[in-house]
Amino acid sequence: MLHDLTGCDFFEILFTFLLISQMKLLFAILILVVCGCNNFKQVGTIMPAMANLAPGIFQFVQDTILPLRKPQQTTTPDSLMAFAEAQIGVPYVYASCDPKVGFDCSGFITYVFSHFNILVPRSSYEFTRLGKTIAFNDAKRGDVILFTGTDRLSNSVGHIGLVTYHGDDVLNFIHATSGKEMAVIVTTFGEKYKKRFVRICRIL
Q1: Exposed, middle or buried: residue 176 (CB in 10 Å: 0-12, 13-18, 19+)?
Q2: Where residue 14 falls among pLDDT bands split at 50, 70, 90?
Q3: How far is CA 138 from the centre of its chain?
Q4: For residues 25 and 19, what is the distance between their CA atoms, to the nearest angstrom?
């Protein structure tokens, strides 16, 4: 009977329930990864929820399990960017990486790379030291471009996009912006973003 449970009993039962729930989640992700299920691309949607509800499991999946799933061998910067550009117009929605709902900046990047079974961090900040740093003048289509966030007092990475074009002293990038457009758009690298620029990195 519930009224016969001590406080310790209650929390022990609660802990066991939560542990079992997390293990079920881990098992589901493991099946997707190891079996190569087509639904793997949905991991980009599952990961944020896992990060909030089960951070320990999330870290284990991110560091240990998902790397077992190899990227599609045919993935090229052009194929990656063709898919990214197909998302133009999807609305900006904070903390979302679901195209049916919308994207925030890192959710957009996560969704694009996950489509090709390429694991990338969910947070733009976690791209700070990821990949090979590329000199600005050597940036190519498909490279990841990082900026500080909108907080002028912070120098940390807080925004992210993908280079769509670089030539003739012009660089354009695609990103999910929370600015007036509130959508996935292509933007020219101008004075506004020069002040916020952090680095460019190459994943493909």
Answers
A1: buried
A2: low
A3: 24
A4: 10
CA distance 55 to 59: 6
* Domain identity same for 52 and 102: no
* Domain encompassing residue 98: 77-202
* pLDDT one-digit tens code per residue, 62-79: 555 555 555 666 899 999
Give the integer Cα–Cα distance in Å for 202 and 118. 13
What is the SS3 assignment for 51-115? HHHCHHHHHHHHHHHHHHCCCCCCCCHHHHHHHHHCCCCCEECCCCEECCCEECHHHHHHHHHHH
Total domain count for the chain?
2
101 and 169 inside one domain? yes
Q: Residue 160's CB: how many other CB atoms inside 10 A?
A: 28
Say if pTM beats, i.e. exceeds, 0.90.
no
CATH value at residue 96: 3.90.1720.10
Q: Could you tell me the sign of the dihedral formed by the alpha carbons of 82, 118, 185, 187, in that order?
A: negative
